[in-house]
Amino acid sequence: MAERGVTALSDMELLMVVLGSGNSRHDVRRLSEMIHRVLEEKKEAITINDLKEIPGIGLAKASQVMAALEYGRRRLDQTYEKIRKKEDVVSLLGEYRTKKQEHFLVLTLDGANRLIGKWVVFIGTLNASMVHPREVFAHAISDRAASIILVHNHPSGQLEASKEDMTVTERLCRAGELLGIDILDHIILTAQASLSMKEFYPLCWK
Fold first, then answer.
1. Closest CA to 139 of 99, 104, 168
2. Same domain, yes or no, for 52 and 124?
3. Residues 160 and 195: beta-carbon distance below 8 Å
4. Do 126 and 152 touch, CB atoms closer than 8 A?
5. Does 1 reside within a domain?
6. Which of 28, 46, 84, 198 could join 42 in a cystine, given CB atoms 3.0 to 4.6 angstroms apart?
7. Are residues 35 and 91 in the same domain?
8. Is residue 67 situated within a structural domain?
9. pLDDT single digits (tens) 46-80
């Protein structure tokens, strides 16, 4: 690799570099051959358990391969928008800033903060009894999301969180903790501005 560059290596040789070494049962070349065969068969559907079924591949080696595959996928995949800051959310949902009714939305994100989906889960005045955790997290679970961002608009133009906004947020945060799905922020939109509840209201982000 140092002499000829990474592109000169075959798929097998790339796997050998990722693995680093063999084990007591097989040398690194033989392990790479077996992994390559499974990867060719499973393609995008490959799982860590598929790799662990290979003789001589334990959790550590399987994890190395899966991590390398996922890292490469994240770096090269440009089909998903990445949410890095509040402004990314505002840009994505600009149409909701001037809606005459309140819209409560959920953005589902993967482990690299890439947008998976955007879902309207409620239309109307925000109320803790109406915005139920099962409706919010149903999309997150079906999308296999690692985290979500809550968003709703204030047609009144008032750029501050109401008591109801905070009650809803705290309730959803508790549900997210139980499900293992992080709520990264709750953003309020108005026609002229936006507010990050995470920044101004500690709540579950203490």
1. 104
2. no
3. yes
4. yes
5. no
6. 46
7. no
8. yes
9. 899 999 998 888 898 899 899 888 888 776 665 55
Residues 59 and 145 in one domain: no
Residues 68 and 103 in one domain: no
Cα atoms in the 13 Å half-sphere on the side-chain side of 40: 9
Who contacts 71 (Cβ-Cβ below 8 Å, separation ≥6)? none
Provide the edge-to-edge strand list for the sheet that holds 182-189. 115-123, 103-109, 147-153, 182-189, 194-196
Q: H helices of the chain, where?
A: 11-19, 28-42, 48-52, 59-76, 86-92, 133-142, 163-179, 197-200
Residue with tokens 């709540």: 203
Examine the domain organization and report whether 68 and 112 are in the same domain: no
Digit-coded pLDDT (tens) for 150-184 = 999 999 999 999 999 999 999 999 999 999 999 99
Per-residue DSSP letter, 11: H
User: Which of 107, 95, 100 minimizes the C-alpha distance to 187?
Assistant: 107
Residue 144 belongs to some domain of the structure: yes
Both ends of the chain: CA-CA distance in Å?
A: 47
32 with 106, same domain: the answer is no
- The whole domain housing 184 covers 86-205
pLDDT > 70: percent of the chain? 94
Please state, in angstroms and as integers, the Cα–Cα distance from residue 168 to each residue in 114, 152, 178, following that order. Answer: 25, 11, 16
Please return the burial class of 2, using the count of CB atoms within 10 Å of its CB with bins 0-12, 13-18 and 19+.
exposed
